[in-house]
Design goal:
Radius of gyration: 32 Å
Strand content: 5-15%
GO molecular function, one term: antiporter activity
Subcellular location: Cell membrane; Mitochondrion outer membrane
Oligomer: single chain
Number of helices: 21
Family: Belongs to the CTL (choline transporter-like) family.
Strand order of the largest sheet: 2-1-7-6
Membrane topology: Multi-pass membrane protein
GO cellular component, one term: mitochondrial outer membrane
């Protein structure tokens, strides 16, 4: 049996074709970004923009800072996010309407006509318009006029008029928009949440720092007291959940004497003041039931898997020892986080510039026959062009907001390309992190003398090998996963479009497809992870590594399903313990139940906002630290299976199996006992 020396294997570049394709795709991504940055205008995101592309309250419309929508119901489409422009007529107004008027009343009053015209498109002649319409009272929200009632406008222009573009439905006079009482409430909630963040952001940061310190201390203790820490982690996780159950019961019992606390969640419906839910007994009963179910599941798993926990603890001990020799691995997730943040920032900026690349398009409109009808024109030079001479009654009017160049015609494809490359790059960064950590930990496992045979800088050596030899393979695995993820995004979009459809079969088929592709994505992530480990060990291409990993796992399916998942479960308990401890502390702090916090000097609209932020942030921080542990355990586990097969399952001393694992296996009589 020849020894495996990860860092000394004769390696060659793998999946070169995919590497070239990935580089070309990145170059195309940069080109799309440069073109988008030259064409887009992010001010459209900041300032309200009317249908002709003018910024309300800026040059040309300085006295009209507010944007008025003719029919804001059309803004509910998700496609609005791709263009930052609603498919309805919008005009800049000096102020939002503050009184109710009908067009029938306006015609008989000169003063009302002047007022009404302010909410009609420029150049509208009310005397030639036969219609019924209204302007009603609206209020200003973030420089947009939102109305309090839903009104339907039915009107028609003079039948022989061809002055307006049909794409806008000839909306010459203003229709007030949809009911916005809910919108107002949601905006109010958003403002209160924003205020809570401004008042408590430094305490939130302190909570996240505490979570980071606790996670780091936990990892360091695992290095020296892995067995004890695992059992402490199990007991503490059970106690933390148990405390949650007791607290929910105490709140449930306290509210028994409160009048009105027996109403159901269905009776009160959706409320913007979330504190209302905490004054209802049914809320705490639901929390208590959920925690009880979680507690029972954890206890039952511990009872039935108690024998496997010993081997899992041995695997975690060895992982702790490996991380102790490769301490730089704990900080590698910071590099992954920075690269993913860079990918997200580039995607978001490019998406904004692409979405704001549209420009106003003007067309020739006339009332008599004209050979230039509906041709594109420039209003600045229209009066001096030959079109006005050929067609005296023609006018150059705004038609739509978009563009007619090849860039604008294929803008939706550029958005799709931006989204696809975002997934590809993000998955590539994740894959690079996995193969780098796997290479470092595999070097530890297959070292004859630990730590003497380890490279001087295991993480940097592994990162260099991954970039030098396996960039194409990483891009290949990331490409497969990205295709599945993009398909899932498209299915979600179709599901959104079919929400109002009555075709039950189409909805059922779409739900099945979403479920299948969700399962496929999970399977590909699992296979890719193990393929990267085999790639880090043997230096083969992606397909060969995935095949070897898959059949190795299938030959040890029981070990994979039980032993590997037990370690995952124990690491999950560790994350749950850290999140629970920090969450309990933040609950007592932000809810004012600790007397020492009464002098902090801030009041919150919703104390659950910073609590939820700290809890989610703590989980992400703990997940970052434990992801290194999980990758170490998975790598050692795969190396362990490979080592067993290379020695035909014999309990004679294998070349590389760590003593801790060997002792546990010998206690189980033979290697088959782990099955």
């Amino acid at each position: 049996m020849s020894p495996v020396r990860v860092s000394h294997l004769s390696r060659g570049c793998t999946d070169v074709l995919c590497c070239i394709l990935f580089v070309l795709a990145l170059l195309g991504y940069f080109v799309v970004g440069i073109v988008a940055w030259s064409q887009g205008d992010p001010r459209k995101v900041i300032y309200p923009t009317d249908s002709s592309g003018q910024f309300c309250g800026q040059a040309g419309t300085r006295k009209k800072p507010f944007l008025f929508y003719f029919n804001i119901m059309k803004c509910a489409s998700p496609l609005v996010l791709l263009e930052f422009q609603c498919p309805t007529t919008q005009i800049c107004v000096e102020k939002c309407p503050d009184r109710f008027l009908t067009l029938k009343k306006v015609v008989s009053s000169k003063n009302d006509q002047d007022y009404y015209k302010a909410y009609c498109k420029e150049g509208t002649d009310l005397s030639t318009t036969v219609s019924t319409g209204v302007v009603i009272s609206c209020s200003n929200h973030l420089l947009s006029c939102l109305c309090s009632d839903l009104l339907v406008l039915t009107y028609r222009l003079r039948s022989d008029s061809h002055r307006g573009p049909e794409s806008l439905g000839s909306h010459w006079c203003c229709v007030c928009c949809r009911s916005s009482n809910k919108v107002k409430e949601l905006r109010l909630v958003a403002m209160k949440i924003f205020e809570d963040y401004t008042r408590s952001w430094y305490w939130i940061l302190l909570g996240l720092v505490i979570a980071m310190v606790v996670s780091l201390i936990f990892i360091i203790l695992m290095r020296y007291l892995a067995g004890i820490m695992v059992w402490v982690m199990i007991v503490m996780a059970i106690l933390v959940i148990g405390y949650g159950i007791v607290h929910c019961y105490m709140e449930y019992a306290r509210l028994k004497q409160q009048p009105g606390s027996d109403i159901t969640l269905q009776d009160i419906g959706l409320q913007t003041d979330f504190a209302v839910y905490l004054e209802i007994r049914q809320t705490w009963l639901a929390f208590m039931i959920i925690l009880c179910i979680l507690e029972v599941i954890i206890v039952l798993l511990l009872i039935f898997l108690r024998k496997r926990i010993l081997i899992a603890i041995a695997l975690i001990k060895e992982a702790s020892r490996a991380i102790g020799y490769v301490m730089s691995s704990l900080f590698y997730p910071l590099l992954t986080f920075a690269l993913v943040a860079l990918v997200i920032a580039y995607w978001a900026i490019t998406a904004v510039f692409l979405s704001t690349s549209n420009e106003p398009v003007y067309k020739v409109f006339n009332e008599t026959d004209c050979p230039h009808s509906r041709e594109t024109c420039d209003p600045k030079t229209f009066n001096t062009s030959n079109i006005s001479a050929v067609c005296p009654d023609a006018q150059c009017l705004f038609a739509f907001y978009g563009g007619e160049t090849y860039y604008h015609k294929y803008l939706i494809l550029f958005q799709f390309y931006n989204l696809f490359l975002f997934f590809w790059c993000a998955n590539f960064v994740t894959a690079l992190g996995q193969v780098t950590l796997a290479g470092a930990f595999a070097s530890y496992y297959w070292a004859l003398k630990k730590p003497d045979d380890l490279p001087a800088f295991p993480i940097f050596s592994s990162l260099g090998r991954a970039l030098r030899y396996h960039t194409g393979s990483l891009a290949f695995g990331a490409l497969i996963l990205s295709i599945v993820q993009v398909i899932r995004v498209l299915l979600e979009y179709l599901d959104h479009k079919l929400k109002g459809a009555q075709n039950k079969f189409a909805k059922f088929l779409l739900s099945c497809l979403k479920c299948c592709f969700w399962c496929l994505e999970k399977f590909i992530k699992f296979l890719n992870r193990n393929a990267y480990i085999m790639m880090a060990i043997y230096g083969k291409n992606f397909c060969s590594s995935a095949r070897d990993a898959f059949f190795l796992l299938m030959r040890n399916i029981v070990r994979v399903a039980v032993l590997d998942k037990v370690t995952d479960f124990l690491l999950f308990l560790g994350k749950l313990l850290i999140v629970g401890l920090v969450g309990i502390f933040s609950f007592f702090f932000f809810s004012g139940r600790i007397k020492a916090t009464e002098d902090v000097g801030f009041t919150l609209n919703y104390y659950w906002v910073p609590i939820l932020t700290v809890v989610v942030g703590s989980y992400l921080i703990a997940h970052g630290f434990f992801s290194v542990y999980a990758m170490c355990v998975d790598t050692l586990f795969l190396c362990f299976l490979e080592d067993l097969e290379r020695n035909d399952g014999s309990m004679e001393r294998p070349y590389y199996m760590p003593e801790s694992l060997l002792k546990v296996l010998k206690k189980r009589n033979d290697a088959k006992a782990v099955d």
